[in-house]
Amino acid sequence: MSRNLTTNKLTDQLARLNDVLCAVNTLNWDARTQMPAGGATTRGQQIATLMGLARSMIIDPAMQAAVDEAGDDPSASVAQEAIDYHRRLPAELLKAQSESATVAGAAWAKARASSDFSLFQPHLEKVVDLARQSADALGYEKHPYDPMVRIYEPGETAASLSCFFDELRSGILPILDTARGRPVPRTDFLYRHYPQAGQQAFATGTAQSLGFDFERGRLDTTVHPFEVSFTRNDVRITSRWPEQYLPMSIFGSIHEVGHALYEQGIAPELTRSAFATDMIGLYAVGGTSFGMHESQSRLYENHVGRSAPFWEKHYVRLRDTFPDQLRDVSVDEFLAAVNRVEPGAIRVEADELSYDLHIMLRVKIEMGLMDGSLSVADIPDVWREAMHNDLGVAIDDDANGCLQDVHWSSGYLGSFPTYTIGNATAAQLMAHLDEQSPQIRHALNSADTAPLNEALTEKVWQWGRRKTRAQILEASGLKANDASPYLAYLKGKFS
After folding, report:
1. Domain that holds residue 393
2. Could you say which of 153, 227, 256, 366 is catalytic?
3. Per UniProt, where does Zn(2+) bind (predicted)?
4. 256 an active-site residue?
5. Which of 6, 142, 357, 417 is most buried as measured by Cβ atoms within 10 A of its Cβ?
6. Phi and psi torsions of 221, nearest 5°
7. Residues in the annotated binding site for Zn(2+)
8. Average pLDDT over the chain, rounded to whole?
């Protein structure tokens, strides 16, 4: 068989796998935006069927044969890694995890509603036990957390994250202490009544101005905002519109636009390929890792969306959208309010400076759960102590403490580090662009993001999953998990 025909055989296998996973994405998007409540049970069954089919396609002898015949084709090594990964996980374990997630999710919702961690505790103990079994099946050299993190951020380990987080923590705490000593700016106007229709209109205009292509995407309403793609040609973003708190929709939408620009910027030739498919996590996505994806969303949300030049251009449009609500608010007052430092209990509402301390707490707990140094029963006390010591925040109930996130009930141990990795990577990229391409900052000072989009397309987006996060950074002379640019950015903004 010729090399061309062999490659086409593997290419076809991978394209069909991507199709199945795009169908999963479509069903998930619909479930979170359009589906009636009565469809939840059968929708779960439909998604489970397709996910099982995707895994079966990967471990099918036909996929292995196509890989063997493809030789040194780059797609072959990606596929082989996925085959080896999925073969190591017993089908019985995957079934148990799927069943556990359903039960644990319901238990978490009940426990959160009644603010009683004890209702969730036995279910989380089961989740942790299954996660440890997965780690044992996958194998690791030093820490059982390592294979969990690898699912979301290849190349990272418990050791690398601990070193990185220790450096960030020691740098952030003094900046936070300084910032908390300043007067809190006026924020009353953020809580006035902002009708949903106006918020949606403003978010749509903002997305367009940032470069989101509505010919290849759309914006919809959901409870928990997210971005998802069905190839680069169909990228969906969502937001929510709380009418008594304006910033949620503004910055949530910009955040999701950052994710979406990454997916829309993937090179067309990577469509339906191994380099637009997470074959380990069974997810159709062009971004190379969760951390790199988060870097793009945080870059647009914070470095662009919370900047003075951005609002010098867009505040007039916002005030025209809500003239009564913002009649007595200057652009400087608005900018100060949306950049205020005000530590609180809830991660998704955290200010830019204290956010990573929320992440570090969760990662510390996850590592302890995985290596057995922390029991599930100890989580509430550990949580309260850390929040008091790091942020000066008293946690009075479990709902606003260790029950606030859904991740653990779903078995997602290992994903939290990627949020802070994203923050640091965004700062690295922006510092690099400021040094190497000052014209980009010049354009941003006029709220023009076109040159930034072009640079990120060249350096990040176009590569899809063909390059790792570390390789993308190395190509620009940068090193993964370099905390210095991020700390310099935080210090410059908040000191």
Report:
1. 158-494
2. 256
3. 255, 259, 294
4. yes
5. 417
6. -100, 140
7. 255, 259, 294
8. 94
